[in-house]
Amino acid sequence: MRVLGIETSCDETGVAVYDTAHPGSAGLRAHAVYSQIALHAEYGGVVPELASRDHVRKLLPLVRQTLAEAGLGVNDIDGVAYTAGPGLVGALLVGAGVARSLAWALDKPAIGVHHMEGHLLAPLMEDDPPDPPFVALLVSGGHTQLVAVDAIGRYRLLGETLDDAAGEAFDKTAKMMGLPYPGGPQLAALAETGKPGAYKFSRPMTDRPGLDFSFSGLKTQVLLAWRGSDHSDTTRADIARGFEDAVVDTLAIKCERALDAAGCNVLVVAGGVGANKRLRAKLAESAAKRGGRVCFPRPALCTDNGAMIAFAGALRLQAGQRDDAQVHVVPRWDMASLSTVAPPL
Ligand code: KG4
Ligand code: ZN
Asked: Whose CA is nearest to atom 21 of ligand 1?
């Protein structure tokens, strides 16, 4: 089944075609992402109305481009998947409107996908995908969650952030130190040149039991360190390194705990912060130590993309699920409310 995936929940327009006839990475026939970073940069954050308008401008050309790259015509598509939530309502409506209309015109089934389920399943698009049960660490700009995946579609929340998401903490900390938007990847790049241990920040909420996170206090610690510093490039890099190490260690400690609590040795990691090199290295090291396994999507599939939506949608469409012709989006949506998808993967 060849599924067209459309992602427009925030500031990335993503389109892809996933073909379930070829499992793993071979199934991804084409994918393209248009990032709105330049558009929002001067405002220091995403402006929802501008995001919606830009999705309107970019989505159809991107659909044409992706189909051409896949060597397919629009009639070769067997189904359409789109992000129905959570996200910015106007942005979501653009993708949902186009997806539903396309499906209607082609007389093909369509399905609204949960953005975080898309992230969560992205590692399964790589070769040799793990089978549930496993534990997922979802780390994006809006979410930081540990989820027990009992089956595809059956998700139990084990822990989540009580305030800022990990990506949000990266972005806000970067902004505080004068880095341009979006700061997360820039802060991570800067941390590469920082001296480990020059600044030591706390590993929030690791000194007590539980699987929840809190990153806002860490952000304040960094702010105080930055204010009291000489503001040199070296200091900025050292602080960035101290901050990154604190976030990475905290995430790794909680992942270990979640695996222990779930009695499981397979971790999948997804969402934008999953592209972070140090996090990938640290979790790989922990997995090796405990004789377990950690699976990541390639970095381009960690951040928002249409491929994860095509893939998650394909699994649901293949299982016979579909939505009616109404254009419906869900800006706030609990992943635990999703229905279970029976394999096959
Ligand atoms: O999953 P995503 O693309 O969008 C959301 O659904 O939120 O995640 C974006 C987040 C941003 O906060 C961004 O700063 C962060 O992921 N991010 C990173 C890195 N790449 C993206 N954070 C740390 N290190 C990175 N290499
Ligand atoms: Zn995302």
From this structure: 272
**pLDDT tens readout for residues 284-322:** 999 999 999 999 999 999 999 999 999 999 999 999 999
Sequence-distant (≥ 6) Cβ neighbours of residue 92 within 8 angstroms? 8, 9, 83, 84, 85, 329, 331
- Other C-beta atoms within 10 Å of 308: how many? 34
3-state SS class at 216: helix
Which residues have C-beta within 8 Å of that of residue 257, sequence separation ≥ 6?
Answer: 211
Under a CB-based contact definition with an 8 Å cutoff, are residues 302 and 122 in contact?
yes
* Bridge partners for 18 per DSSP: 3, 28
Q: Ligand 1, residues 117, 170, 187: which to mutate, most atoms within 8 A of Cβ?
A: 170
- Strand ordering across the sheet containing 154-160: 154-160, 144-151, 134-139, 266-270, 293-295
Asked if residue 167 has its Cβ within 6 Å of ligand 1, the reply is yes
- Decide: pTM greater than 0.70: yes
- Verify whether ligand 1 is closer than 6 Å to residue 182 (CB atom): yes
